[in-house]
Write a structure and sequence with these properties.
- By secondary structure, the chain is α/β, with parallel strands linked by helices.
- The chain folds into two domains: about 5-150 and about 330-340, Rossmann fold (3-Layer(aba) Sandwich); about 150-325, 2-Layer Sandwich (Dihydrodipicolinate Reductase, domain 2), CATH 3.30.360.10.
- It is globular and about 60 Å long.
- β12 (about 280-285), α11 (about 290-295) and β13 (about 305-310) form a beta-alpha-beta unit.
- The strands form three sheets. The chain has a six-stranded parallel sheet, with helices on both faces. Strands 10-7-11-14-13-12 form a six-stranded mixed sheet. Strands 8-9 form a two-stranded antiparallel sheet.
- The chain contains twelve helices and 14 strands.
Length: about 350
């Protein structure tokens, strides 16, 4: 079964990554591209300043971009991938859901809404059933599912692996070293970031601290309760292009040994979905790995890498890394689309 899909916000950085990942996908056929009113009516080649590290796919280059409006998207499109700015997505995504479209969104709006599933398929695929609650409460024929923030996606699978191995997590501290691509092409100027590090990313700490507890919370079929561990985050922008590196400190109810943590992450399973890498977590024994330039493309950019495991006075310490625009954004939305298809929501 080939599903006809569309991309909302197709000309932006994440929209371009979505095009790159969707064009060769066996299950998805790109049938609609939307952008701002300034781009509507132009060919995708004209509208998009293509900056992805592969040529613009010829199969979509001459597709006419439409306005981001439910009336402009064909009725036979089954799934929409959204990379809209959150301020736009907040108003537009519900309108598409009301019109009957299923939306897999990377936008930050509504991630913490009680009836919106926030999903990393390998971590909490069962939370997708929250869509039944959402449809009942909102009267939608469509549906809205979110993937989390790129920095949250990086460390939550490692925490899920520790919990799956039976460790009772109490407190987590995480310091992020985030690539400039996470701010978008025009987000950080060269004069700001070259020979520098910026120890502040607006709103980012709150996303790590809240989204992680929702992702690892419990869904009882009617409502979702947040995980009761505590998370404190510090977020920093550094001059790497892609790949968010994070320093994680974990305190459990009992001691977590480095060897036990490594085994838990090696044992943590992938999923039988096209974009889910095997292994999901690539564990390094070398203390100096992972590194963004060397390891961000593991598993075609969809794997999480972990290394530098050691005991500290706080508890377990390790580092983890993921490609922020693939696993952390566009690839996460595509993976959620694959889960929606496999679970019969399309």
């Amino acid at each position: 079964m080939t599903v006809r899909v569309g991309v909302l916000g197709a000309t932006g950085a994440v929209g371009q990554r979505l095009i790159q990942l969707l064009e060769p996908h066996d299950d998805f056929e790109i049938a609609a591209l939307t952008a701002s009113d300034d781009s509507a009516g132009k060919s995708y080649r004209e509208a998009a300043k293509w900056r992805v590290d592969s040529p613009i796919p010829e199969s979509v280059a001459e597709t006419t971009v439409t306005a981001t409006d439910p009336d402009e998207v064909p009725d036979d499109v089954d799934l929409l991938f959204s990379s809209l700015p959150s301020s736009v997505g907040e108003a537009v995504e519900p309108a598409f859901c009301e019109a009957g479209y299923v939306v897999s969104s990377n936008s930050s709006n509504a991630r913490m809404a009680e009836d919106v599933p926030l999903v990393i398929p390998e971590v909490n695929a069962d939370h997708l059933d929250l869509l039944d609650v959402q449809r009942d409460e909102r009267g939608w024929n469509g549906a809205l599912v979110k993937n989390p923030n790129c920095s949250t996606i990086t460390f939550v699978p490692t925490l899920a692996a520790l919990e799956a191995a039976g460790y009772d997590l109490r407190r987590i501290h995480v310091a992020t070293l985030q690539a400039v691509s996470g701010a978008g092409y025009d987000g950080v100027t060269s004069m700001e970031i070259i020979d520098n590090a910026v120890p502040y990313i607006g709103g980012e700490e709150d996303k790590l601290e809240t989204e992680s507890r929702k992702l690892l919370g419990d869904f009882d079929g009617a409502e979702l309760s947040l995980n009761d561990f505590e998370v404190a985050a510090s977020c920093n922008r550094i001059p790497t292009l892609d790949g968010h590196l994070e320093n994680v400190f974990v305190e459990g109810a009992d001691d977590i040994s480095p060897s036990g943590a490594k085994q838990a992450m090696r044992d943590y399973p992938s999923l039988d979905l096209p974009s889910s890498p095997d292994p999901l977590i690539h564990v390094f024994d070398q203390p100096e790995r992972p590194q963004p330039r060397l390891d961000r493309n593991l598993g075609d950019g969809m794997a999480v890498a972990a290394g530098g495991f050691r005991e500290s006075t706080f508890g377990l310490q390790y580092n983890c890394l993921a490609h922020n625009t693939i696993r952390g954004a566009a690839g996460a939305s595509v993976l959620n689309g694959e889960l929606l298809l496999s679970e019969g929501y399309l």
